[in-house]
Design brief:
Elements lengths: L20 H5 L2 H4 L4 H20 L5 E6 L5 E5 L16 H7 L22 H7 L1 E10 L2 E8 L2 E2 L4 E3 L16 E8 L11 H14 L4 E6 L4 E5 L5 H8 L11 E5 L4 E8 L6 E6 L2 E2 L5 H20 L12 H5 L2 E8 L17 H20 L1 H33 L21 E6 L1 H10 L5 E6 L11 H6 L1 H10 L16 E5 L4 H17 L2 H4 L3 E4 L4 E5 L2 E5 L2 H11 L2 E5 L8 H9 L6 E3 L5 H12 L3 H10 L1 H5 L4
Parallel strand pairs: 1-8, 12-14, 15-16, 15-17, 17-18
Antiparallel strand pairs: 1-2, 2-7, 3-4, 3-7, 4-5, 4-6, 8-9, 10-11, 11-14, 12-13, 18-22, 19-20, 19-21
Length: 642
């Protein structure tokens, strides 16, 4: 008789991964992936450990060094990882921390009152994903070292006479502390390397969020040597975020309450229409907010309404200010530090501790209320801006009702110019936003009608960075995009109602095309951000040239590729495409729209804080920061392959 299926599945089929082998087999479970973001996660996890020392009051300087071969060394002047024997493992505490998952000083609460880090697994995960790593601990007058290869110790923990590392001169500041040095495993992280500009943003945030800490960064690959220190902490952070904006009052409002759960908040209003509020828990950026953000927003709305009523700035027959009204033009940083944060999800994007809401709400309400009483002129400026926002909101409500409730939310009145696809399953569908009638016509003729929709737009859409909602809803091209996508806008945005799994911006590869892409990206970033964060927004890459090698046609997407083919294959340039409209339907399909051959760039937000600043500089009213940005990036723009 044939064996039953269940008889073929036995204990022999159950595999137990020892040590850090699970990390190497499934790195995405621990660091999110093996792309550049995952690689950066390794460095940040080691830095987190040093910042935790600073938050515990045991460290005031962290050094980060990237060598020419991309080896990373992180050093601090904290107490150093213990090197005595751990009772549970029988190994030294250092080896336990570096080779055992979920081992560290952050679980019992004795060594660290608050900490960041990846739930205590950071150092061991970095070790498991490195070709080689070594850690030195300075305690008293002695140096102790252990070395590893791909997570496995190759030496015992031993006292050494001299450090392996002399790349950073720490003077007398590093008499004690920990030095961790690793070379990431190129078998796991293929064709990626560290981006110093992204890392600098992270390190600057750490310096803002941790008072009294110096963070030095050296990158030998690009000759960078900088040190961050901000006496004002998160007040300096808010000033930095507002540095190119017209502010309503000169100094940010600052609130602090120390305790088991410590709360810091700094806020300042500017003349723009957008909110830029960023929240942190134990120096971790909680991009999806959580209970601390709920407490902050509740307090802000309540205190400003109470102040406006008390001082007769709101008339008796006027409705209360809403949360939207009080957050227009607001820049704020909310930072809480607590012993046992409960994050929703491994990536720590949202704080779940319910008790934190009341603590933050109470702290912000008391601090903001006191500030307004002591600074009545600032209070009046804030309330006047909020009332102006409320009046604009009412005008926007009428436009919103017309555009959204009658158009998108009930699924009717799709834009007349939208050439929809036949498939009604959003997961299978994609929509191209195409500039110009000519390109739109070619795209409609060349597409696969089953799953590809085409929305042509005329010229450059409204710059939403400089417009209130009533203007946004009243703009025909923006309204068409909102209707076609079907998911709404701002607080009404609902991914479950999105009509297309992929939204693809398809514009010419020239200056005007770049401007149109930037305007569209501004719209999506400011008012439909989940479209980006959840991976639904893409940019099409049309070719620049058509070349002929013998009788075979080739399309290339950069000047560099063109030159290489001309030199290597003696190719002949037959077409220089100045715009999408110069391609016929067949060419547009085979180069830019065919899923089997096209190149799509997925739009991602590596750092929301930096993205907010860039959009404000490039698309805001102030000319000076835009000019400075263009001048600073002129060389890279000239060399950009679009």
């Amino acid at each position: 008789m044939a064996a039953r299926a269940e008889d073929q599945y036995t204990a022999r089929d159950i595999q137990v991964l020892e040590g850090l082998e699970a990390v190497r087999r499934r790195p995405g479970m621990y660091i999110g992936g093996t792309d550049q973001r995952g690689l950066h996660h390794l460095l940040i996890e080691i830095v987190n450990n040093s910042v935790d020392e600073a938050m515990a009051g045991r460290c005031d300087h962290v050094w980060v060094h990237i060598a020419k071969d991309s080896r990373v060394t992180v050093r601090d002047n904290g107490w150093g990882i213990p090197i005595d024997t751990h009772a549970g493992t029988g190994k030294s505490a250092l080896e336990t921390v570096m080779t055992v998952l979920h081992a560290g000083g952050k679980f019992g609460g004795g060594a660290y009152k608050v900490s960041g880090g990846l739930h205590g697994v950071g150092a061991s995960v970095v070790n498991g994903l490195s070709e080689d790593m070594w850690v030195e601990v300075r305690r008293g007058s002695k140096i102790y070292r252990q070395e590893y290869e791909r997570g496995l110790p190759t030496t015992e923990v031993r006292a050494v006479k001299q450090s392996l590392y002399a790349g950073i001169d720490t003077g007398d500041k590093a008499a004690t502390g920990t030095t961790s040095s690793f070379l990431f495993d190129h078998e796991i992280f293929k064709e990626v390397d560290f981006d110093s500009s992204i890392l600098l943003q992270h390190l600057r945030e750490y310096a803002y969020l941790t008072k009294g800490i110096w963070i030095s960064f050296i990158d030998e690959r690009s000759d960078i040597d900088v040190t961050y220190y901000f006496e004002g902490g998160i007040q300096s952070f808010v000033r930095h975020l507002n540095k190119d904006r017209e502010v309503l009052f000169s100094r940010p409002i600052y609130v602090e309450r120390l305790g088991e759960v410590s709360v810091e908040c700094a806020l300042q209003y500017n003349s723009t229409f957008n909110e830029a509020t960023f929240s942190f828990v134990n120096c971790i950026n909680t991009i999806d907010g959580g209970s601390h953000m709920t407490g902050f927003r509740t307090a802000l709305t309540r205190v400003l309404n109470d102040y406006a009523r008390k001082n007769k700035l709101l008339k008796d027959d006027e409705a209360n200010l809403t949360g939207e009204d009080v957050r227009e033009g607001l820049v704020a940083v909310v930072s809480v530090k607590l012993p046992e944060p409960q994050f929703e999800g491994q990536t720590k994007t949202r704080l779940g501790n319910p008790e934190v809401k009341g603590i933050v709400e109470s702290a912000v309400a008391d601090g903001l209320g006191q500030y307004l009483e002591e600074h009545p002129a600032d209070g009046r400026h804030i309330i006047e801006k909020c009332i102006t926002s409320a009046r604009a909101r009412e005008a926007a409500r009428k436009a919103r009702d017309l555009v959204i409730r009658k158009g998108v939310l009930d699924g009717t009145m799709l834009p007349g110019k939208l050439a929809d696809c036949s498939d009604r399953e959003p997961e299978n569908c994609e929509m191209f936003i195409v500039e110009g009638q000519s390109a739109g016509g070619s795209a409609k003729s060349g597409r696969d009608r089953r799953f590809q929709a085409i929305l042509p737009i005329q010229g450059k859409i409204l710059n939403v960075e400089r417009a209130r909602l009533d203007k946004i809803f009243g703009h025909a091209e923006v309204a068409a995009i909102i209707k076609a996508l079907g998911a709404g806008i701002d607080d009404d945005f609902d991914l479950a109602k999105l009509r297309y799994n992929r939204t693809i911006i398809m514009a010419d590869a020239d200056v005007d095309g770049s401007h149109i892409r930037t305007l569209l990206l501004t719209l999506f970033f400011r008012h439909m951000r989940p479209l980006i964060t959840e991976g639904h927004l893409f940019i099409a890459q049309p070719p620049l040239y058509k070349l002929l090698v013998g009788r075979t046609s080739h399309y290339v997407y950069s000047e560099k590729d063109r030159d290489e083919m001309v030199e290597r294959d003696k190719a002949k340039v037959t077409n220089r495409f100045k715009g999408l409209g110069e391609m016929n339907a067949e060419q547009l399909w085979e180069t830019t729209m065919d899923p089997e051959r096209r190149i799509l760039l997925q739009v991602q937000i590596e750092d929301a804080i930096e993205a907010d600043t860039v959009f404000s500089n490039l698309m805001g009213d102030d000319v000076a920061p835009r000019k400075a940005f263009i001048q600073a990036h002129a060389a890279s723009v000239r060399n950009l392959d679009v």
